[in-house]
C-alpha cells in the first residue's frame, strides 16, 4: 500500500513538471504583439504652416525715389488756367561755361524769368508782341506766373541780367496758350432746326405704320443737316 502511494506521488510530480516545462517553452516561442500607438492630438496652430514675415528690402525705397536733377538744361512751361502759368527748369554748370560768363560776372548778375507774349507770331527770339522780366531767386527751380491774359500764347526764357543791364538768355521754354475765360464764339450750324420735316411727320395720324413714316422722312432727307438734334415737335401749319 505504501509503495502504491509513492508511485502515485512520483507520477503527480512528473505530470506537474511536464506541464510547467510545456508552458515555459510556449511562452518563449510566442511572437510579441506590437504595441499600437495611441492617437496624438494636434492643435490648429500645428496644422497651419507658418508663413515667414515679409519685410520690404532697403532697395525698394531707393527705386521709388525720383531724382531732383536730371543733368539737362531745360525750361518747361504749362498753362494752369486763363490767368496763370507755371514754369519749372534746370540749369547745369556747363550752360554757364557755354555762354562765356565768368564766375565774377555770374556772381554780379541777377537771375530773371523773361515772359514773352507770342500770340499769332512765329517767334524767333526777337519778334515777340511784348515781354516782361520777373526777378527770381538763385535757389528757385519753379515759378508761378500771373499773366491775366486769357486766350494768349506765351513762352518764357530763363536768363541773367548783367551789371550793365544786358539780358543773357540761357534756356527757352515751349509755347503754351492760356484757355479762354468766356464762352466760345464758334457756332455749330449743324444743330439748327429744320421745321419742315417735323410738320410733315405731324400730318400722319397716330398709329400709322412705320414704313410709311420712314418714306416720308426719306423724301426730305436732302434738307436735313448731319447731326440734327431732337427739338420739340412743332404744331401743324393751318391749311396743311
Supply Rg.
Answer: 52 Å
* CATH topology assignment of the domain at 74-177: Immunoglobulin-like
Strand content: 15-25%
Roughly what is the average pLDDT, rounded to an integer? 77
Total count of helical runs of at least 4 residues: 7
How far is the N terminus from the C terminus? 162 Å
| Fourth CATH level, the homologous superfamily of the domain at 74-177 | Immunoglobulins
Would you kindly provide a written description of the structure presented here, covering whatever features stand out?
By secondary structure, this protein is α+β, with helices and mostly antiparallel strands. Among the domains are: 74-177, Immunoglobulins (Immunoglobulin-like); 190-240, no CATH class. Helices cover 29% and strands 20% of the residues. It has seven helices and eight strands; from the N terminus they run αααββααββββββαα. Strands 3, 4, 6, 7 and 8 form a five-stranded antiparallel beta sheet that branches. The longest helix has 28 residues, at 2-29. The protein is elongated, with a radius of gyration of 52 Å. The model is unreliable at 226-233 (pLDDT under 50).
